[in-house]
Write a structure and sequence with these properties.
The structure holds two protein chains of two kinds. By secondary structure, chain A is an all-alpha fold. Chain A has one domain. Chain A is 72% helix and 1% strand. Chain A has helices spanning 2-30, 38-53, 68-90, 95-115, 117-120, 140-165, 167-177, 179-184, 189-215, 225-239, 244-265, 270-294; strands at 126-127, 217-218. In chain A, helix 2 runs antiparallel to helix 3 (68-90). In chain B, strands 1-2 form a two-stranded antiparallel ribbon. Chain B has one domain (2-113, 138-286): Orthogonal Bundle (ABC transporter involved in vitamin B12 uptake, BtuC). Classes of the chains: A mainly alpha, B mainly alpha. The interface between A and B is large, with 44 and 48 residues.
Amino acid sequence: MGLTLYATALLTMGGIYAVLTLGLNLHWGVTGLFNAGIAGFFAVGAYATALLTAPPGATPSGGLGLPVATGWAAAMLLSGALAWAIGKICLRLRSDYLAMATIGIAEILRLIVKNELWLTNGSRGIAGVPRPFEQLAQPWAELAFLLLVLAVLAIAYLLLETAVRSPWGRVMRAIRDDEAAAAAAGKDVAAFRLQAFVLGSMLMGLGGALSAHYFKYIGPEATQPLLATFLVWVMLIVGGSGRNAGAVAGAFLVWALWSATELLTNRLPPDWLTRAAYLRVFLIGFILQVVLQRHAGGVLPERTAVRRPGP
Amino acid sequence: MLLDFVNFYLIPGLVLGCIYALGAIGVSLLFGILRFAHFAHGDLMTVGAYLALLLVRVAGLAPIVALPAAAVGTALLAVLIDRAAYRPFREKQTIVLVIASFGVALMLRSLVQLLGGVGSVAYVPGIQRPLVLFDSLRIAERHLWIIGVSALLVVVLHLFLSRSRTGKAMRAMSDERDLARIAGIDTERVVVWTWLIGGGLAAAAGVFLGMDTQLNPYMGWDLLLPVFAAAILGGIGRPYGAILGGLVIGLAEELATYPWIGTTPLVSPDYKTAVAFAIMVAMLIWRPTGLLRGRQFG
């Protein structure tokens, strides 16, 4: 029983992270857009669904107690709208500027979440977010939710695979690899980039929504850049940037690794326990460096005939 | 009323501006020379601040006396980080460097948390009384130090960039990298100097921030956004622009909390960072080359 629950939790979190990583793969892997503010889109999605679906009284301005599906739709719409606004401003500039702007948005959203108590409860967070199937008995409730997450992941994966293999996907890769050539071939580079940026961000918002329902809670810690942004980047790089299967594999692999190191450090004496958490973060940063330097393609490298051009 | 404005808004704004400027100089130089946004710059500041804390605690030095050693330590660390984490990517797409620096930021911060503890600490505990000049102009001693030493560092930097061979090579490389290489400039040497200067100034910014408020492992990361905003405002690759940008952002953040209309602050102090962000977005829309016309990275 304990093992089933542990494995279910591991796979559910892996699945949620896989949705986020698929979004980032569309941004970075396929289109070459550097999003350093995944935490921001995650937060928008998570808080949107929490506010809509939590029972009345969940925050001072109240939850609305709407069905879960409404929350998910709102999560995707809002994060997509945010991405559209950022993209309109930054996508015409060099990718470093997009990185700075997205990290800025994420930090501002963290300020809003912390300070606007009437809306978000501040550091207390919003509790009572409903989880689909939670009325079932253990472990069926957990298993049913896992299946739901995996179904969402499968749909996202299939849609993205279709998109990436379509002419639309070819244009995206063309823009990533040689913007000038794509423009010369008559493609509206800015419009294509904006589409990819909005779509990927919607997936990130959905990932945030899934997480809020899974934990039945959303608080400001969940939007820390470490867990929401950095880990997703490591997952994509380790899995293989540019390939959807790589993104999914990286998400499950790195999440398993992250959880396994927690099992290890939990055996340490208590006064070492808090410090060990930082050792894990260091380790993840180190793994990223090794993969970037030695195995730039990741576990499942992108299969293309043409290599990316140098500087 | 006017004195309140000077004491509680203008001087703190100037102090914050100095801190941002010192960080932004490094970010701007690094962007000019290595062509990437260094995401670990904030955490270099944190490391500098904690190195000084170590000296304050172990050797009993005043923070301002510990500053030079902390700056040298951080500068050397920056060169080491470059060797280990950034140099392998020198000939690749520079955006990979941004990812790598993201990782370095996290590693630095986790080391600070591991070795320096998680909570907030102060260099000198207790409240320090401000000096009162001309009966009513109140300025804290630490603010005098921060503004004075920052000005000194800027003058030294100016002399270095305008007089020394390495400084000139640095500016040449920031303007035209390939031309500089053809002209026989040892680019790796320039890169080392850029890290030494960027790291040293980052440490100064960190120590000043620690003197002004407190130290915590997130202090540098939280500064990253205004520092980037300052570098963009001044024109990326333009160290003098970065100084101007830092001062403007620092002053704007503090002055925005002044009750310009009515009696409540115009912008709640909780949202000071948002002011920097708004300025950055405005610049990205209307003038991405910055005030001093930095390089066009289109």
